[in-house]
Amino acid sequence: MPSALRSTVKRIAQKVLGQGNVRDFVRTRRLWLDKKIYRRPIEVGELRQQLIDLGVTRGRTVWVQSSWNEFYNVPMKPSEVIDLLRDLIGPEGTLAMPAFPIDQDASKLFMVDRAPVYTGLLCEVFRRVPGVQRSIHLTSSVCAIGPNADFLIRDHHHTDMTWGKASPFCRLMDVDARLIGLGATFNFMTPLHAVECLLYGEVPFFRQVFNGTIRYRWKRANGEAGEHEFLKRGGDVRPQRLRRHFGPDICTDAKLSNLKMLAADAKPFIEHAVALGRKGITMYIEPVPTKELFVPTTGQSI
Predict the structure, then answer these.
(1) Residue 106 domain-assigned?
(2) In terms of Cα–Cα distance, which of 135, 143, 125, 40 is closest to 83?
(3) Which of the two residues, 2 and 53, has the higher pLDDT score?
(4) Are residues 120 and 16 in the same domain?
(5) Whole-angstrom distance between the N-terminal and C-terminal Cα of the chain?
(6) How far is CA 206 from CA 236, 237, 274, in A?
(7) 297 close to 204: Cβ distance less than 8 angstroms
(8) 185 and 70 in a common domain
(9) What is the DSSP letter of 43?
(10) Helix 78-89 with 44-53: angle, nearest 10 deg
């Protein structure tokens, strides 16, 4: 659908629904309907076994993206879900979650250890767990705890590519991480954005995704401070466009009552997304992914 037509349809939908954010309205109505349909409580032991079946096992590095709204049939607090995840991976395992700040105003000082997140209640509770480390990034910071935590987060503010090779997202591949979606399934898998960073120098299309830079100041609770500048991403994405290209050999789906889950190993997941990107198969609808923009200009990036 052309961008002009898409904008027109969006304005009409906003007017008809009386809502500024159509996606949020649809999501809220779907959740209301699901609560009417899916009423079976999920037992803690049942959830525990399903997580084990999805690869949340001792010693693993596990990346979790979640939507707490979908946990209405789970009789657990966010802190209890975090305890369960940490118990399954053990002290030799590492748990990581997105911690994207609510306030992303580059003119303000980013207080790394205090800024609340918008990536869900589970992530915000996790951010406050003693011993959790947070990467320095104004828009896409990551929290982690465990032996691989420092490796994952320490260089995020030393790269100009938010999801590039030195970011926590690409480093999930280096530590053989398991990606887990809890309520937040394929559409919310942030590591998909590694594609535009890894193919930035190879495929012209992905250079069009970025426009300008963002520079901000940051400070930690211990007084450490500095500045960071990174490439600003634009465009519009529809991750669901890619889902059919990820078979069960890469992505595993599961469901308990209403709670949808997804699991994948980070390395094959990201490498497959990159391979699709080279073929012109992308989640982007803006910029328009025209064929000529996917002709490689340099050697392979991954």
Answers:
(1) yes
(2) 125
(3) 53
(4) no
(5) 31
(6) 12, 13, 11
(7) yes
(8) yes
(9) P
(10) 40
